[in-house]
Design a protein that fits this description.
Blueprint lengths: L5 E6 L2 E6 L9 H16 L5 E6 L4 E3 L4 H5 L26 E5 L2 E3 L1 H7 L3 E5 L3 E3 L10 H10 L2 H10 L3 E2 H6 L5 E3 L4 H13 L3 H14 L4 H9 L4 H7 L2 H11 L10
Parallel strand pairs: 2-3, 3-5, 4-6, 5-7, 6-8, 7-10
Antiparallel strand pairs: 1-2, 8-9
């Protein structure tokens, strides 16, 4: 629907998802549920291989939770939908690459939403913060994720002070991958998405499941689980047409044709 806060566009094997909810792209319960449906359908569509998530306009990617909606009765612990807040950060079995193209301010739950992606690209004017502390609440997902991804003391500074930081600092700490001029951001995101979409989807699925499930496992336990085909995606990969295609293509010195089966 044209008045939906979430706009989607299919480009071959790539799905572009735009959070377009003026004025600031804040997320209320209804929007979160729509996003969950969109990302669930992306996950389950065999024709789609990569998603790009961005924000409408040039100023905001997403400021997170809609405090005005909360003041009007949206419960903070309400029904966010199938994938949790923003439809992505708790969506089970998301074994396809997701790119966040941060086109502006990403703070609070908006930064947490970006952290749910696999690769984060940023416009050069984008700014970031976890300001929940100033409104008497906790950046819950960021409190779990950030100390595991960047130095502990930096993560704690950002969480405890809620201070703002720019794209250069975010890249310096490894929070984002690349910075581009705003006018080039979506072109670069699409270029990366096309590269990923041309790759082996079953391998991507195996990588994502291994990384996700092995996060809290000892190295040898994770390796044993892989070699014993106890990861569903790994077992599927090793018995697939695509694995045979990869070997044949290498032997025949040609590009492989991936079918995802």
């Amino acid at each position: 629907m044209s008045d939906s806060p979430i706009k989607t566009e299919r480009r071959g094997h790539v799905l572009e998802v735009t959070l377009d909810r003026p004025k600031a792209n804040a997320i209320d319960l209804a929007t979160s549920r729509i996003m969950g449906d969109v990302f669930r359908d992306f996950r389950d569509d065999p024709e789609l291989r990569v998603a790009i998530l961005t924000g409408g306009g040039e100023k905001f990617f997403c400021p997170g939770w809609d405090l005005k909606a909360a003041a009007d009765g949206d419960a903070v612990d309400g029904d966010y939908g199938v994938g949790g807040f923003g439809g992505l950060q708790e969506l089970r079995g998301m074994n396809k690459p997701v790119i966040a193209a941060v086109n502006g301010i990403a703070c609070g739950g908006g930064l947490e939403l970006a952290l749910s992606a696999d690769i984060i690209l940023s416009a050069d004017h984008a700014t970031f913060a976890l300001p929940e502390i100033r409104s008497g609440t906790v950046a819950d997902a960021a409190s779990v994720k950030l100390p595991k991804r960047i130095p502990y003391h930096i993560a704690m500074e950002l969480l405890l002070t809620g201070r703002w930081f720019d794209a250069e600092e975010a890249k310096g700490w490894g929070i984002i991958n690349h910075i581009y001029p705003a006018a080039d951001l979506m072109a670069e995101a699409r270029k990366l998405a096309e590269l990923l979409a041309s790759g082996p989807p079953l391998v991507y699925a195996a990588i994502k499941e291994i990384v996700r499930e092995a996060e809290d496992m000892k190295f040898q336990d994770a390796m044993n689980k892989i070699t014993k085909s106890q990861f569903e995606t790994v077992e599927k990969l090793y018995t697939s047409e695509d694995q045979l295609e990869g070997a044949r293509a290498f032997a025949e010195k040609r590009d492989p044709v991936w079918k995802g089966r």
